């Protein structure tokens, strides 16, 4: 059976990674979370005290790129890829509000996008692939076989992210999460380099009232119809 490339883009906290994981397991495909690369660079910038992102700090961060080794490695207990920066697994450290509050400013720096997109494109050769993010269907894999674009109401998205972080033990309040989601959407959609757009050939899924199994069934049906699987 032909293995396809599935690009999932969408607004912040629309459950892209949850459905991407489920779908990739169902199809026995590789799943790559592209946002974790921007988050890992943001984590690094914070730990190198390059925040606030002044011109000088941006230039320092760009000059550090050649020394930052970013890669994904399979986690044998989850079966998914974890993100590594200079051989350190950062997977569990990237959802903090501190990282979320700076990541969109870092993700709009063209030199950083160029560096990250090159690594992301290299996954195409690995066969069946699901990748999620903001520019996957538009820039990373413009020829993806299937493009999905996820959306949901602001409240539903904020509540989901709030519950997720509370369950993981973060001390956060709902309003900060809500504001972060809205401001990231705005910044991601308005930036000059690879803004968040709905690709013309994408199927838009509003999952405000859908659970994850409804979404999986909908996408599987779409794949069966489109590719005769
Ligand atoms: O999981 P959530 O939707 O909150 O975000 P994420 O996928 O972890 O992405 C975090 C941020 O990275 C986004 O708000 C974007 O600023 C940036 N990003 C991007 O610019 N391009 C991508 N392909 C993925 C993420």
The name CATH uses for the topology is Rossmann fold
Bound molecules: cytidine-5'-diphosphate
CATH class: Alpha Beta
As for the number of domains, it is 1
- The CATH architecture term is 3-Layer(aba) Sandwich
Sum up the overall morphology in one term.
globular
Read across the widest sheet, the strand sequence of neighbours is 2-6-1-7-8
Find the structural class using helix and strand composition. Answer: alpha/beta
Strand content: 15-25%
SSE ordering:
EHEHHEEEHHEHEHHEH
What is the tally of beta strands? 8
Low-confidence stretches: none
Helix content: 40-55%
Tell me the number of helical segments per DSSP (H or I, 4 or more residues long).
9
By CATH's scheme, which homologous superfamily applies? P-loop containing nucleotide triphosphate hydrolases
Radius of gyration: 17 Å
Mean residue pLDDT: 97
Instruction: Tell me about the largest β-sheet.
Output: 5 strands, parallel
Gap between N and C termini, in Å?
Answer: 7 Å
Question: Can you walk through the features of this model?
Answer:
With 229 residues, the chain is of the alpha/beta class. The chain is built from nine helices and eight strands. The protein has a single domain, classed as 3-Layer(aba) Sandwich (Rossmann fold), CATH 3.40.50.300. The strands form two sheets. Strands 2-6-1-7-8 form a five-stranded parallel β-sheet. A three-stranded antiparallel β-sheet has the order 3-4-5, covered by helices on one side. The protein is globular, with a radius of gyration of 17 Å. Bound molecules: cytidine-5'-diphosphate. The site of cytidine-5'-diphosphate has 17 residues, from helix 1, helix 2, helix 4 and helix 8.
């Amino acid at each position: 059976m032909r293995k396809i490339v599935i690009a999932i883009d969408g607004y912040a906290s629309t459950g892209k990674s949850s459905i991407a994981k489920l779908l990739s397991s169902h199809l026995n495909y590789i799943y790559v979370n592209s946002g974790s690369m921007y988050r890992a660079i943001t984590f690094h910038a914070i730990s190198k005290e390059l925040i606030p992102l002044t011109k000088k700090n941006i230039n320092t961060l760009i000059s550090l790129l050649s020394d930052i080794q970013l890669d994904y490695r399979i986690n044998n207990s989850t079966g998914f890829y974890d993100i590594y920066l200079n051989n350190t697994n950062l997977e569990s450290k990237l959802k903090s509000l501190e990282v979320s509050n700076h990541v969109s400013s870092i993700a709009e720096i063209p030199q950083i996008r160029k560096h990250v997109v090159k690594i992301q494109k290299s996954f195409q050769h690995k066969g069946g692939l699901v990748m999620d993010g903001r520019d996957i269907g538009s820039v990373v894999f413009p020829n993806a076989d299937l493009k999905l674009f996820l959306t949901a109401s602001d409240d539903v998205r904020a509540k989901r992210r709030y519950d997720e972080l509370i369950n993981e033990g973060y001390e956060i309040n709902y309003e900060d999460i809500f504001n972060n989601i809205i401001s990231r959407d705005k910044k991601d959609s308005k930036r000059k380099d690879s803004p968040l757009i709905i690709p013309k050939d994408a199927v838009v899924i509003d999952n405000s009232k859908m659970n994850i199994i409804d979404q999986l069934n909908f996408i599987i049906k779409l794949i069966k119809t489109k590719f005769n699987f």
